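Recap from last week: sequence in, structure out.
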Amino acid sequence: MKNNNTRNPIVPCKLYLNPDKDKIQILKDNKKKSGVYIWQNLSNNKKYVGSSVNLTTRFYVYFNVLSLEKHCYMPICCALLLYGYSSFSLGILEYCAPSETLKREEYYLKLLNPEYNICSEPGAPMLGRNHSEETKIKFRNRKHSKETKALMSAYRKISSIGKESPMLGKKHSDETKAKMSLSQKGHKGSIQPKAKKIMVTDLKTNSSTNYASINEAAKALSCPDSSILKNLKSLKGKPYKGRYVFKLL
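Predicted structure tokens:
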């Protein structure tokens, strides 16, 4: 992996050269692990660095095209949609304790200066969260480089005229469809309730996040859908795990 520090090149502890083919393996390898990851465009070497306390949950979101389209104001989402997963490598820069993810992300952001990152500091709103319209407007109005503007413009142009790109209108084999279906199901035996919008309040950080469904909230919190349903129906607002409060919208 190339970076500006040629004397001390960064070597990921795990590297997937074709995430399109390796989806299932990626999700399996990183189950219940936290750490820092990097997407790198193989055609131009541009990078995106992120971190998560649950890497599999984060990668579920990346491998959901609808989610990428929803966040297409972010350069990395535009790039994945425009070039396709097979045009990128996905690396795990390092695994670390959940409490260390933002600190380690900051280290790699400063070291690599990744081109697809909107923010130069960790902890900013990122893929996998439902942002308010105000936040989305701030992201859209953020000053981007000319290259990033061109990337976002190219994606908007392709999506508006329905022209095929590696991710738009892509036809998958039956085997690939089966694998993608499996990757979207999440944990074995999880309940897939009817989509209901839900707000999750984290008492520890004093912040609230809106999710499009109970299933989406469960993935973000790494818990079964049934736990959230039980909390909503019988515990009447008692914080889940003493930390999270759920409210249907």
